[in-house]
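Example record

One chain of 96 residues, shown exactly as stored in the release files.
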Amino acid sequence: KLEFSEAQNAQLEVLLSSVEERKGDSPERRRGGPFQDLDPASADYMASVNERIEIHLETVRERMQQKASLRKGFFEILTDEQKGRLDSLKAERRHH
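Predicted structure tokens for this chain:
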């Protein structure tokens, strides 16, 4: 609906490929979550839980920054006319 030029399509491919490289199936996700292999009877259980929470929070922060970077990169590629069209599309979606 935004009708990208060939140059814009090339820029979008570069932008999206950088996201795909960072994405992926984490070992944590394959294991069933960050706490799946912890033993609640272990003496250092709470320390391990807290450590994994911090790691998970950092991962979430990184993902949020990546999404913001992607969004910014996307808007930098758009022309003013396309930005206006995108705003119109968003407004239509909100009203339906």
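Notes: The CA atoms of residues 34 and 52 lie 7 Å apart.
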